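Entry 14. Ran structure prediction on the chain below.
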Amino acid sequence: MIDKPDNSILKAFTGLEGGVVASGSTCGVISGGAMGLAISHYEEIINNGLPAQVGMLSLIGDYMKWFDKKYNTTFCRERTGVNFYSGMGQLRYFTPGDKVAKCMWHIRGALRHLYSTFQYEIPKNISISKTSDKPFHCAKQVLEGIKEQTGITNERLENLSFIFDGGVGLQGGVCGALAGAIMGINLLVGMNIRDNSYFQNVKAFTIGHYNLLRDEQIESPEPFNVGKQIVDKFKKEAGNLECKAITGKRFSAWDEFQEFAQSSDKCAQLIELATNEASKQIETYKQPVT
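Output, structure tokens:
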């Protein structure tokens, strides 16, 4: 719709399916739509810097609120009511088909809503205090750390990863550090949706969901299995996957998020964990893939 395709970002985002590697957190329709909004205003964001970023977070927050009101939740686990990490959960999702149809219906509704939202201007005149002189972006810090340790990077993805601040648009969803780790590893091992044929994508999707049921790590660089290892370790350390649960806060404004994140030892620890885990996985698979 916006005629600005970016196959590398799409590849990175394949890991966010099913609420981040099918873990049930923030719905991929949310994270994908948020990135679509940001891409549609990319030049303005780059040219105007932090004010445009904060305005975009407000626009994305409105999208999340719309989705929540329309479909009663922004979390995959609540929308589907299934556990993709169990065989019975996957069976119920795909049969008899009502769960899949519900997702397709929500995607349709979200795209219709986003089509009009793409035309909106980024909100201006949003207050930004002096605490934001050096803005803190969770996902971007992880992506920059991955780049430093492995050389794997995508400049546009780094520049737009602020959308995950405060759990996507400051709404308390999936932690930005975890999202950064999953996107970073998928820059290497993610699915090439546009380059693959339909049957190649179906095959990769099927294999990936089978690999979600395996506790051990496999030798091949399969994105669902690799991502599941990161999600499991992150949840074990953080106790949860969502920003609002990890921090115990629901941020009402950009400055509130900045003040908390820049002084939080917990956030710093999770960023370090996410960076190191993703980088370790990338180094494991980088040579065989290239």
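The chain has a mean pLDDT of 93. Will compare against last week's run tomorrow.
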